[in-house]
Amino acid sequence: MSSDATRSTRDGEPATSGGDDAQPADIGLLWAQDGAHADGGQAQARPTEAAIGGSAPQPPRTPPAHASPAYARPPATAAAITSETMLRPRGQPPEGGWRHVVYAMTGGLVNPGPSRQEFERRQLVARVKAPVSGSRRIAVISRKGGVGKTTTTLMLGHTFASLRGDRVIALDANPDAGSLGYRVNRETSATVTDLLDDAEHIRRYADIRAYTSQAATRLEVVASDDDPHISQAIGEHEYHTAVGLLDHHYNLILLDTGTGILDSATKGILGVADQLVVVLAPSLDGARAASLTLDWLMQHGYDGLVSNSVAVVNQSRQHGLVELGKLQDHFSERCRAVVRIPWDPYLEAGAETGLDDLKRATRDAYLALAAHVADGFAVPSQRA
């Protein structure tokens, strides 16, 4: 109810309130109460005490000089006119199916509301948009090659970048000529080596942008060096420096690591990571390698990263003998969440791939993955 409904008139009678200003407590009652009170009539002025045989109302006493007037209020400004304060609440239109057809054909007069699937998807999107304090570094790891680690990094980055308003970047931290830089349209030939060589000259976002390639989703990628003349791999100190540079300009930093967990580069990435995504294939050797990775991390002081980690099972084209339910149960006991990614022909190609290229089920799986990862943003960082 508006403030006019509670403010007294000059003759002591309460003012009436039009139904257009009334805000129902339940949005579902909006049509029933729009323009009328619950009893179907307009509010009636309450009779004074004199009219019903009581004593005449006394004039109000003048408040003490030191008392603030009860009716004092801050001056109105244009900042008070917002959609949240001036518009009636209304549901969001459905995005597809018969519900969208009904909404469109009636010009929005009939809104069936979102389907259960739409509602669940909107909840996932809201989780993906969880705020980040400073920057958040997410390492994607696997001790076995060919399980889709780079693809997971890419699609997780695409999902975050397409839905969030802050900056998202993926760094190819594979010291052995990683392929992440080839999975987006290359806007520059610069690599992480060039970024490190020019580190002392980088001050602004515009400076660092010369070393990244940006996809249509706004995801940026820093490629690894694949120069065949290089004989010395980038190590722990160099990756610390690279991540430190990205920290100043990006909110989410995805780190696509190599397969050697004992390598200097991977150990350096683990030392600066806030969260882990563990990628595995639906096979005994793939699951065993992933579980051994968690064992190693627990034995070397990374138990906080393990408890907040998310496991990703990249499913293959054909259903094998491994029972995925039992596989998921095993990693559910070790990780905070487990997400299955269905097989998709576009992912198998290993080429430039965007979210729009994928099947709906695959996009929904990556959305669920991003939501589970974002749930971990609230866990305090334990980086070294």
Question: Would you kindly provide a written description of the structure presented here, covering whatever features stand out?
Answer:
The chain is α/β, with parallel strands linked by helices. It has two domains: 91-128, no CATH class; 133-378, P-loop containing nucleotide triphosphate hydrolases (Rossmann fold), CATH 3.40.50.300. Helices cover 33% and strands 10% of the residues. It is built from 14 helices and eight strands. It has helices spanning 30-33, 83-86, 97-105, 116-128, 149-163, 192-197, 205-208, 236-247, 264-272, 284-299, 303-307, 324-332, 345-348, 360-375, and strands spanning 136-141, 168-173, 213-214, 220-222, 252-257, 275-280, 310-314, 337-341. The protein has an eight-stranded mixed sheet, sandwiched between helices. The longest helix has 16 residues, at 284-299. It is globular and about 65 Å long.
Give me a quick take on this structure.
With about 375 residues, this protein is α/β, with parallel strands linked by helices. Helix content is about 35%, strand content about 10%. Strands 3-4-2-5-1-6-7-8 form an 8-stranded mixed β-sheet, sandwiched between helices.
